[in-house]
Amino acid sequence: MASEKNGQEAMDTDTTGLDTNLYSRQIYALGESAMMNLRRASILISGLGGVGVEIAKNLILG
């Protein structure tokens, strides 16, 4: 049984800090080192209109 903290289930994380339940398919396909590189990555999005801003927001939050 998963323990709960602040009303949310505890994440199943390994030593890298990745949520293995959430990212299991990406870790399998890309590998753990690629996922760590993605986690540390920063991006700049520029030149977006009204629809582009909503799409970018949904990508960031989802």
UniProtKB/TrEMBL annotation:
It holds the Pfam family ThiF. It comes from the Eukaryota. Transmembrane segments: none annotated. InterPro entries: ThiF_NAD_FAD-bd (IPR000594), Ubiquitin-activating_enz (IPR035985). One of its GO terms (molecular function) is ubiquitin-like modifier activating enzyme activity. Residues 23-61 form the THIF-type NAD/FAD binding fold domain. This is THIF-type NAD/FAD binding fold domain-containing protein. It comes from Strongylus vulgaris (Blood worm).
